[in-house]
Structure formats: C-alpha cells, structure tokens
Amino acid sequence: MNILFIEDDPMNRRVVKDMLDVAGATMAEASWAEEGLAKIDAESFDVVLVDLRMPGTDGFETIRRIRARDDEKGKLPIIVVTADTAVDLRERCLGLGADDVLFKPVAMDALFDSIGRVLASRGGGLLA
C-alpha cells in the first residue's frame, strides 16, 4: 500500500510514517500542497492523507483540486488529518469530497481503522 501524506509539520509526518511502517505500508511525503499535487501527477497512491492548515494552498483547496481532476486520480481516497476543531469541520471536509477526517494527535488504531473503512467502502484492500 502506498500512501501520500501532505503535511507541513515534519514531526507529524514522522509519527504517521512510523505508524504506517508497522503495517508494512509505504508513505511518500509532501511538505506543502503543490508538492503533494505534483506527486499525485507523477506517482500512484492508494490513499492521500492531507492536513488542512498549511502555508500557501490549504488542505481545503487541495481536496478541491484533487476532486476536480477528470482522471482516476480524481477519485483517490482522501483522509483529512487535522488539529482544527471547528464545529462543522467534518461536514465541510466531507462536503468537499474527503472520505474521512481524523483529529490530531492521531492514534494508530484510528488511522488504521480510517484507512480500512475508506478502502473497504471503495472495494479496496485493507492494511496488512
């Protein structure tokens, strides 16, 4: 399983990478949205994790841009990973096309459950 995490904080990327390593998944990293969108163009991913609050293009716009694609990559499963706790945040993210929302700090079981649910709902496999 190949996962892209678009997140500006290197420590958050490291924590999630360590969790995914346990499951045998590989994780590509992007420290800002434009870098992540370029990686989506160039590589193949099973899931995209995206932070909402990043310098430049934020996670909301990143979700919009992925969903606006007219190829298969426009259908990539997207899981938001955020520290934002706005009351309507989950509904807003899902309304933009995200498949799930996780709140920081992310627990390993919550991350694996979310990825499993999202992939199962799309007919894909689960983490090992």
What does this structure look like?
This protein is 42% helix and 18% strand. It contains five helices and five strands. The chain has helices at 10-22, 33-42, 59-67, 89-96, 108-121, and strands spanning 2-6, 26-30, 47-50, 78-82, 100-103. Strands 2-1-3-4-5 form a five-stranded parallel β-sheet, sandwiched between helices. Strand 4, helix 4 and strand 5 (100-103) form a beta-alpha-beta unit. The termini are close together. The mean pLDDT is 94.
Query: How far do the termini sit from each other?
Result: 9 Å
Quaternary assembly: single chain
Number of helices: 5
Radius of gyration: 13 Å
Strand element count: 5
Largest sheet: 5 strands, parallel
Series of H and E elements: EHEHEHEHEH
Q: What is the mean pLDDT?
A: 94
Shape summary: globular
Beta-strand proportion: 15-25%
What brief labels describe this structure?
128 residues; alpha/beta; five-stranded parallel β-sheet; 42% helix; globular
Q: What is shown here, in short?
A:
Helix content is 42%, strand content 18%. It contains 5 helices and 5 strands. The protein has helices spanning 10-22, 33-42, 59-67, 89-96, 108-121, and strands spanning 2-6, 26-30, 47-50, 78-82, 100-103.
Could you outline the blueprint of secondary structure elements for this entry?
Elements: E1 2-6, H1 10-22, E2 26-30, H2 33-42, E3 47-50, H3 59-67, E4 78-82, H4 89-96, E5 100-103, H5 108-121
Parallel strand pairs: 1-2, 1-3, 3-4, 4-5
